Amino acid sequence: MRLSSEAVQGSLADLYEPWRKEHGPVVPVELDGGVPAFLVIGHRTLREVCSQESLYSPDSRNWAELQAGRVPSDWPLLPQVAYQEGSTRFLSGSEHQRLRGVLTSGLAQVETASVRRYTEWAADRLISRFAPKRQAEIVADYAAPLPLLVMLRLLGLPHETGEQLLPAIFRLLEGGPEAHRANEEISDIIGRLVVARRAKPERDLVSWLLHGPVDGGPPLSALEVGNLAWLTVMAGAGGTTGWIGNALERLVCDEKVHTLFRAGTVTVAEIMNETHWSNPAVQNVMGRYPLQDGQLGNYHVPKGALLVLGLAGANADPEVHVDSDGHTFTNESHLAFGSGPHECPTAAQRLAKVVGQTAVERFLARCRTPRLQDDGAVQHGGSVIMRQLTKLEVVFTADNQAAVRQATSGSDALGESSRSSHYLFPPRMLTQLTSHMSD
Asked: Where are the domains of the chain?
């Protein structure tokens, strides 16, 4: 079966369900560039693969095709799977737990109320740029920049860095010819931040990764910190952008969902949860690698094969996907955040929910009754990894009172000095880090 970027942009039901009927929970596929793989679209099977790292390793050095030199060096998806030393994505066991533990402890300290206030503040200023025109291109004007602004503040990067970072993130996720260069740009930006925070910690995540306590091993190296920060930016900004865009697309384009929301039958949080089921921002994740020959689904899968984790396909598995009575609005057994030891940390999931839900709520509060601008208002792009909403043009009725309140609250500039010291971490974090350094 051909799993191409173009195929993922069409109807997901038309893509995965015929494959499921013919092949079962595991489908032999050919990726862009003629690279062979097995796509796991069974909900139960995917959970089994993710949970058994002794059988299915995340370390791409076990990929037979890559080790044999049969993967082109310019393969657009190579940055997603090429092994990186010190990256938690490719580690398992105690090595993985050491890095994940520091990241989790740092994210757990983030103050949810501060994230919500900052997201509201940034959202209002973005909305004020297009609200007077009563129209917006939601992706470029809102869904893309907003999560990035939060991620920049979380990591400790200045706002102007976003002008370079955001395009690089999406070039990497698209998996096109610019993916390799985009990966280098992101790594360079983060590398400079790591050097600065090594010398002088601040109240941000990178400082915690560098100077915070580590269980089960030595302090993190600059390489390990850079890779963790890279992964946080990619998952946080890229994934949340897709989630916001997909949820607003559902509200604007799906009359049933819009009616339920207007009637107060479902909330924004429930609609966003349902979006995780029907159209997750990340469609497929690469990859896992069997450490021995074995049976998976209906196929004999050889040692060293590439397994693609089909999150969208598994979410659509009839065994778990029930939408006739609205269960998907509240059922959270979806796989949008992954599964197993490499599942997105609980603290990171909480932050994504706060940012995503706040973004949608602020947009709907100030941009009433949004509707498509014209027949060509919706466009999708991306790669086999992300079914990316690239354009969503809407018109709406602006909340004039909200606009007046926003205009009188201060400058519209996102870098306004009154918020330049708006931290997402409590003061005690910096005290803990500096006292730890003095010890």
From this structure: 2-438
pLDDT tens digits, residue range 339-387? Answer: 999 999 999 999 999 999 999 999 999 999 999 999 899 998 877 888 7
**Are 112 and 350 contacting, i.e. CB atoms less than 8 angstroms apart?**
yes
> Residue 363 and residue 371: Cα distance in Å, rounded?
13
User: Does position 415 have pLDDT exceeding 80, yes or no?
Assistant: no
The dihedral over CA atoms of 176, 181, 184, 186, expressed in degrees to the nearest 10, equals: -60
Q: What's the CATH fold of domain 2-438?
A: Cytochrome p450 (1.10.630)
Count CB neighbours of 37 within 10 A.
21
Total-model pTM: 0.89
Using CA atoms in the order 3, 4, 8, 12, what is the torsion angle rounded to 10 degrees?
A: -30
Question: What is the pairing mode between strands 307-310 and 294-296?
Answer: unpaired
